[in-house]
Amino acid sequence: MTPVGGQPAGHDDGRPRVIAERPPAGSQVNDALIIGASAVAGLGGVVFGVALLAGAPLAIYGGALAISLLALAGAVRRYFAGRFPDVEAIEPRAELGDAEPAEAIAVVEAVGRRPLLARMLLGAAALIGLGLAAPVAVLGPSPGQALRRTAWRRGMRLVTTDGQPIRPDDVASGGVASVWPEGEIFTETAAVILVRVTPGSAQPPTVLEWVVDDSLIAYSKVCTHAGCPVALFREEDSALFCPCHQSTFDTTRGAAPTFGPAARALPQLPMGVDADGFLIALDDFRAQVGPAFG
Amino acid sequence: MTPLFALLLSTLDERLRLRQPARKTLNKVFPHHWSFLLGEVALFSLVMLVLTGIFLTMFYRPSTDLVVYTGSSALYHGQSLPAAFESIVRLTYDVNGGLLFRRIHRGAAHLFIASIILHLLRVVLTGAFRRPRELNYHLGLVLLLLAFALGFTGYSLPFDSLAGTGIRVAYSELLSFPLVGDRLAFWIFGGPFPTGDVIPRFFVFHVLLLPAIIGLLIAGHLGIVARQRHTQFPRFGIDGHRWVYGKPLWPWQFAESTTLVLWLGGVLAASALLVPWADVTLLGPYRPGIVGNNAQPDWYLFWVEGALRIFPPLEWDLPGVTIAGTFVAGVLLPGIVVAGLAAYPFIERKVYDLRGDWHVLSNPLEIPLRAGAAMGFFSFLLVLSAAATNDILSLMTGIPVETITVIFRVAALAVPTALTVAVVAYSRRRLRARGLEVGSSEAGPRRAGDPAP
Amino acid sequence: MAGQWRWPRGGLARWALALGLIAVLPASRLIVPAAATELETAQRREAALLYSVHCAQCHGAFGQGAQVPGTTRRAPSIDQVPVALLDLVLQTGRMPPAGDPWDSRRRTHVLDQSERDLLIAYLRAEFDLPGEIPEPPEGNAAAGRLVFEVNCAACHGSVGGGGVAGGGAFTPRINAYDAVTLAEAIRTGPFEMPSFAAGQISDQQIGDVAAFLRQIEEEQGTLVLGLVELNPVFASAFAGLLTLVVVLSLLWIAGRPADFPDRETTEEE
Q1: pLDDT beyond 50 at B361
Q2: C-alpha dihedral (A120, A121, A122, A124), degrees to nearest 10
Q3: Going residue by residue through chain C (269 aa), what tens digit of pLDDT does each one get?
Q4: Which of B172, B237, B262 lies at the smallest CB-CB distance from A73?
Q5: What's the count of helices (H) and strands (E) in chain C, helices before strands?
Q6: Which of C16, C9, C14 is closest to C54 using CA atoms?
């Protein structure tokens, strides 16, 4: 690098000036590299196109694309390195504002002061803006009771994801099942997890009248923390475990939280058995399902 | 220059008078350092995202209505799937190049956000946020947040089981806003989760609203850089506050940018061969009430996810309002993090009583407040991010996930505190050893942070 | 890690233990010839030896269950377990354990195939274990997906890769298992796992799940690395790697290009 000039003193004309320059590193080797890399790049581009159209495996056309782009990047770099001097320059930093020459004509200003008029205009514009925000409220219905109630009603059968009503015997000892209200499969807030605990192990705050066979309990499957489905049933200690944030609930104690970020128990579904021996809901959940709001 | 090209140029010049401004632009001096290219990486990643995104948009169906897949994947043939997921399966198995472009798109998304974060880190550590650049710094922060939103909506669109679970958690986060949460959630989702509206709306956010805003803000961001000129590292013998030094736009800045954009394209294409960035088809479509034991957001939201995981089980039922732990950990805490970042330039200016404009970058170890704040801040985010992997860590080490969670609860407070104290002490000692006054602006307001003469 | 438990180190200690147990065996009903068994005496002797070396230490000489040495936890009795469960834990390598018996993350086959078959046949006969080894029918992968999502994914992950279950328990990776193994696990509910009756998951559906998992297992991985589908945590590691590569490229791109002078020119000068 040959220094061309050091720190310019005093006066500056606002133009960049070169302070160091290095001649290009052109050579036959460099030219050969550029030619070779360009050829690879061009060929890669064609291979990419042909292979893609021909339905070749991803590895072939993807590889061709990668190689051609990388080769072209290298070729471009060698081209500039071999053909252009490397220049370092300096340029004065204009202090913003003081470098601009004054305009010949001043900006036209209003004659006289009537602030009220301008304020009226701005105020009206602001009110229109406020009015135009109204469509935001149309984007969604009013929440109302939508989040406080679920699809469960008295007498509704519990059905599996296939829509089959289930009897207590269908859930094996130490078993677990995901169930829905009849006709409301995949209605998210109504998801229920049915667990079979060791007979007699359920204790308050579990509502024992809603426990079938002394061992079959239904809880809301929607985590009270962030709403993930709590579906991992650890049979050995009758715990429900949320795979999203690791909240853990004790199913023998009314699904009270025992670990993790959830602060509220999973609501228990009032459950009984109908005359045909199928599991039914006795009512909607008594507590709010899912994460907190309001 | 070929005669035809010269003719074209002169024809344009005769009509638009471009020769003078073009010469001025091409000679414009740009400070030169590898870390100044991080922003360019973000910009070029966005270019890749737009190019691949256009292709993907041609096939993607923004709907959760069930349709029957009839393509070549045996896993789904004849199955009724949400249209969004079905179109992803089709793109993957039945469209030539579909999987490649999906992977490049996802890989570029990772790189887009990672390079913005590194860019931010560079700006924070070297003090490029100082007056007169606070506005551009804040514009950059907004761009980062929009990039998160762009990433999250993109992660959601395939509507695979992970995406749906992520949307569910986001919905719960919206619900958790005190008083207005349910209304807010319903406005964005169009009703109680999961509505048929969420995917079409996220699609509009992802392909129209967010890219348009990001494009405008990037134009503003770059316009401000061009107007204010770039900052530079100190160099002996040149007063960087009065002189911009570096390389002219033509040829080297141009050469570097061209090399970079081609190289990035190549690296992304190569990564798409090796890493299944966007392969979600095996995960299956999202169905309400169903989750896999593998639920995590993408890495750039790990810090929020980690906070959600390790936050203690707290929920305050006050009269008329409920404050949920999810609000504190998932909304309030990220809000404080962003507010802290936004406020830092003013804090540093106040604490060191800085005056005037700054164009020369500084070593954070010469500004103990900045070194400490940056260390505390980013280590806190890193610990929280690590906490989001507690299940995988448990699986890898065999330590119960509960133990790991408790360790992270302690570490989230202890590690940043300890590191901050250590870095502040080290930088103070370092300054004293060099005979520099700690934290004062004795060297003159323009000079604090400059290298010693 | 606390609670980590290992078999006695060294062959000598192990064989001393085994011989000690064999000395007790003549008194046990294990050695009494059972009419039902088709095993020859030599085979029974070998099986009894396997039992005494690999099982008796925790499950007791008579399968009655006992405290696991070095821990406060009990190993369950195994003299009445369903045959399917016995077959499952032995054939998958869950038992006998190579390390901590409760750590279900890894499967190591301590016994080879013939030893496992022998031990199963022997214990089945000696304890007169109930049930049969299930034989689920061939299934359909696409149908198996929904069954898997609803019943299995929450614990074993969307693609059967396994995960944490909390409380120090882990769900194993299951996508390499065949239909018989899956059926045994689903029906008997080993360890922390719940069990599922035929009313909930039919034999046909088990076959479907097996076909689904096989389909996933056969999925082709990426070039060189052979990756199939990334958990976001592992994806984050690769995103970091990608970023690192790009940052290193920046050092290269912003650096001064190398000179490639022509050899002749250099020599002339």
Answers
A1: yes
A2: 80
A3: 333 444 444 455 555 655 555 555 544 444 444 444 567 788 888 888 888 888 888 888 888 888 888 788 888 888 888 888 888 888 888 888 887 877 778 788 888 888 888 888 888 888 888 888 888 899 888 889 889 998 999 999 988 888 899 888 899 888 888 899 999 999 888 888 888 888 889 999 999 999 999 988 888 888 888 888 888 999 999 999 999 999 999 999 999 888 888 776 544 44
A4: B262
A5: 11, 4
A6: C14
pTM across the whole model: 0.91
- Cβ pair A89, A1 in contact under 8 A: no
In chain C, what is the greatest distance between 2 CA atoms, to the nearest angstrom? 101
Least Cα distance to C259 among B169, B97, A81 occurs for: A81
Q: Do A169 and C197 touch (CB under 8 A)?
A: yes
Residue of A179, A222, A269, A293 to mutate, testing the B interface (most B Cβ within 10 Å of its Cβ) = A293
B42-66 pLDDT per residue, tens: 999 999 999 999 999 999 999 999 9
Predicted pLDDT of residue C69: 81
Q: Is C224 left (phi over 0), alpha (psi -120 to 50) or beta?
A: left
**Which chain A residues have a beta carbon less than 8 Å from that of B330?**
226
Cα distances (angstroms) measured from residue C182 to each of A119, A196, C206: 76, 21, 7
Contact yes or no for B303/B113 (Cβ under 8 A): no
Q: Which of C149, C225, C236 is facing B287, going by the closest CB pair? A: C149
Specify the pLDDT at position A268.
Answer: 95
The kind and range of the H/E element at A44 are helix A28-54
Q: Enumerate helices (H) and strands (E) in chain A, giving the number of each.
A: 4, 13
Q: What is the pLDDT of residue B110?
A: 97
Within an 8 Å CB–CB cutoff, is residue A188 touching chain B?
yes
Q: For residue C164, how many other CB atoms are within 10 A of its CB? A: 26
The subunits that touch chain B, with at least 3 C-beta pairs less than 8 Å apart, are A, C
Neighbours of chain A (3+ CB pairs under 8 A): B, C
Which residues lie closer than 8 Å to B65 by C-beta, 6 or more apart?
B82, B83, B196
Determine the Cα–Cα distance for residues C3 and C21; give it in Å rounded to an integer: 25
Residue B26 has pLDDT above 80, yes or no: yes
DSSP 3-state of A256: strand
Residues 245 through 304 of chain B touching chain A, CB cutoff 8 Å = 245-248, 251-252, 254-255, 258-260, 262-263, 265-267, 269-270, 272-273, 287-295
**Helix, strand or coil for residue B198?**
helix
Of residues A245, A196, A189, A195, the one with CA closest to residue A222: A189
Distance CA B116, CA A235 (A): 46
Q: Rounded to the nearest 10 degrees, what angle do helices C203-217 and C141-151 cross at?
A: 100
Contacts of C191 in chain A (CB under 8 A): 236
In this predicted model, which residue has the larger pLDDT, B100 or A8? B100
pLDDT at C22: 56
Between CA B274 and CA C228 the distance in angstroms is: 10
Find all residues with CB under 8 Å of A82, minimum gap 6, and list them. Answer: A24, A25, A26, A27, A30, A31, A34
Q: Do A77 and B259 touch (CB under 8 A)?
A: yes
- Within 8 A of B189 by CB-CB distance, chain A residues are 140
Nearest-CB residue to C215 (from B34, B38, B75): B75
Reported ipTM: the value is: 0.93
C66: alpha, beta or left, given left = phi > 0 and alpha = psi -120 to 50? beta
Residues of chain C found within 8 Å of residue B271, distances taken between Cβ atoms: 238, 242, 245
Distance of CA C99 to CAs B401, C92, C109, Å? Answer: 20, 15, 11
